Amino acid sequence: MAESGSDLHELLSSPDLVVLGLEADSAEQVIAVLAQRLVDGGHVRDTYPEAVMARERVHPTGLPAPGRGVAIPHADPAHVRQQAVALATMSRPVAFGVMGTDDATVECVVCILLALSDGPAQLRALRQVVELVQDRGRLERLVAADRYEDVVEVLSGTDLQTGVS
Amino acid sequence: MKTKRVLIICGTGIATSTVVADKVRTHLERKGIPVQVEQTKVSEVLRGAEGYDLIVSTTQVPSSVTTPVVQGLPFLTGVGVEQALGDIERALTERSEQ
């Protein structure tokens, strides 16, 4: 299958993969909504939603970024058909477990569900996610976005600063 | 100084450890600490990580592992990076003096 571009904004290839102002009470709800978008778009196998959910319980993915919590749930590449990401901004913060802990939580306002395949392409996207998480200004703009086009604009800014040093 | 072996560990799925490994390697090279950085998944170290001087992990490390551990989370969030780098440096240089 042809790979689409591997930049973050290219992986967010359709407005169907973006949910703005999501109202959810739990991390599970957020993951369920976004995972279903990836299933509907044919990006992942039917096994993906449960795989992400199960992984999140054991290895949580909440990142206590400066100011704004961001969660990056994901699963093994085996569940991915054609790599993509789905993104939600939350109308109110939702608690996710902090990566590397088994009891701490972080209030997240952005969730980026990663459906990445193996190899260099996933690494490029992952680096761009980390750049975004660490950039307070861009996160603020992302949270404020009310159109798909705005989200793509914020994410594509990553191209200007992909150097990881 | 003897080359140090650092193991970067992430959970399963995607390689958050690669992003962390880049930053640790760059920093230690800049500090003139000879280092060999390797990566693995947590499922591969259930029986320990023999032969490594230090582990940097973005996930919980099983209690069976006796190698010193520094949290890798700061390299993903950008919060507390300087302290994490200091901890890594200290762990590696203190062990070499023993």
Give a short synopsis of this structure.
By secondary structure, chain A is of the alpha/beta class.
What is the largest interface, and how many residues per chain? Answer: A-B, 27 and 24 residues
Low-confidence stretches of chain A: 158-165
Q: What form of chain A results from the Cα inertia axes?
A: globular
Helical proportion of chain A? 25-40%
Features:
heterodimer, A: 165 residues, alpha/beta, 5 strands, B: 98 residues, four-stranded parallel β-sheet, globular
What does this structure look like?
The complex is a heterodimer of chains A (165) and B (98). Chain A is α/β, with parallel strands linked by helices. Helix content of chain A is 37%, strand content 21%. Chain A has 6 helices and 5 strands, in the order αβααββββααα. Chain A has helices at 8-11, 27-40, 48-58, 120-133, 136-144, 148-156, and strands spanning 18-22, 62-63, 69-71, 84-97, 105-115. In chain A, strands 1-4-5-3-2 form a 5-stranded mixed beta sheet. In chain A, helix 5 runs antiparallel to helix 6 (148-156). With 98 residues, chain B is α/β, with parallel strands linked by helices. Chain B is built from 3 helices and 4 strands, in the order βαβββαα. Chain B has helices at residues 16-30, 73-77, 81-97; strands spanning 4-10, 35-41, 54-57, 69-71. A 4-stranded parallel beta sheet of chain B has the order 2-1-3-4, with helices on one face. The model of chain B has no long low-confidence stretch (mean pLDDT 90). At the A-B interface, helix 4 of A face helix 1 and helix 2 of B.
